[in-house]
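Renewal narrative, Specific Aim 1. Our central claim is that a sequence can be written position by position from structural information alone. The example that follows is taken directly from our test logs and has not been curated for this report. It begins with the structure tokens describing the chain, in the order in which they were read.
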């Protein structure tokens, strides 16, 4: 992941093959009430809006998941909130990066500018995996933009990425072995034995992004104790008990200790695929957390 580089598709044909899978994912979503391409200093960010009432709720997906990742969460959430789903800048999807994103401050800036362009004021954020880190990063660096934060098994937020995960990810991008490494890696992340990630559109889309798109983003920088203590908005942290992206109990303990306005929960049977596998339960928990805020 080079500094000073821009994420891009590997070739025009790669873009076309990816777009075919993305369009399949869009067809699986409810019909959006609006589609926005929001200009920022780092490129144009694609945002879909679902629902028309209630406070704004911004959904930030895991790596390569795009707005499609939230297809099972949107129907219930949109009954109570104006739901905005974001295709993350610098990743595969319909957002278009034009300027390098070099550090955590740049990550906060493009997201802040996106929410400003949508005229949302202070929004409730709901992020999964790297989307959780992005939500936390905005709460740390642009607190006025955030009304509350829900973090679902966020990476590099309460505990570091294990070395084993980093090593397992290496073959995914290597020539000649990536075709068999991708499904094995995604199945390991998913944590469901005997389940092929290609059986559902989210898995196919993430796999297509890994195959056809070159990400050039900086790795997420773990938050310091002080940064977490200084978050003044309400935080709901949900940690998957069988997650492979961190030590779940270490992450839970740090969230419980450091978040001054936080609620931290361990869902023992859940894997890192918690948002999709427990879509109704997660959505209902988020709505309870947001009720009255």
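The sequence written for that structure reads:
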């Amino acid at each position: 992941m080079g500094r000073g580089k821009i994420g891009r598709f590997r070739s025009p044909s790669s873009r076309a093959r990816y777009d075919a899978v993305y369009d399949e994912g869009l067809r699986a979503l409810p019909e959006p009430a609006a589609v926005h391409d929001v200009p920022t200093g780092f490129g144009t960010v694609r945002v879909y809006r679902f629902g028309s009432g209630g406070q704004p709720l911004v959904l930030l997906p895991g790596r390569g998941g795009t707005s499609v990742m939230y297809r099972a969460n949107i129907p219930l959430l949109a009954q109570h909130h104006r739901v905005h789903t974001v295709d993350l800048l610098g990743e595969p999807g319909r957002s278009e990066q034009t300027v390098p994103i070099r550090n955590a401050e740049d990550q906060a800036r493009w997201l802040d500018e996106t929410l400003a362009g949508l005229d949302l004021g202070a929004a409730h954020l709901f992020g999964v995996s790297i989307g959780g880190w992005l939500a936390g990063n905005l709460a740390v660096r642009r607190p006025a933009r955030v009304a509350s934060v829900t973090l679902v098994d966020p990476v590099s937020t309460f505990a570091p990425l294990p070395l084993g995960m980093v090593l397992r990810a290496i073959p995914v991008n290597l020539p000649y072995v990536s075709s068999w490494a991708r499904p094995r890696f995604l199945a390991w992340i998913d944590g469901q034995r005997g389940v092929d990630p290609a059986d559902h559109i989210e898995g196919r889309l993430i796999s297509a992004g890994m195959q056809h798109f070159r990400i050039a983003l900086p790795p997420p920088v773990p938050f310091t104790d002080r940064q977490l203590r200084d978050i003044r908005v309400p935080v709901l942290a949900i940690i998957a008990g069988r997650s492979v992206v961190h030590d779940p109990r270490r992450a839970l303990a740090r969230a419980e200790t450091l978040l001054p306005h936080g609620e931290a929960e361990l869902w023992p049977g859940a894997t890192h695929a918690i948002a999709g596998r427990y879509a109704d339960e997660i959505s209902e928990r988020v709505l309870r957390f947001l009720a009255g805020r």
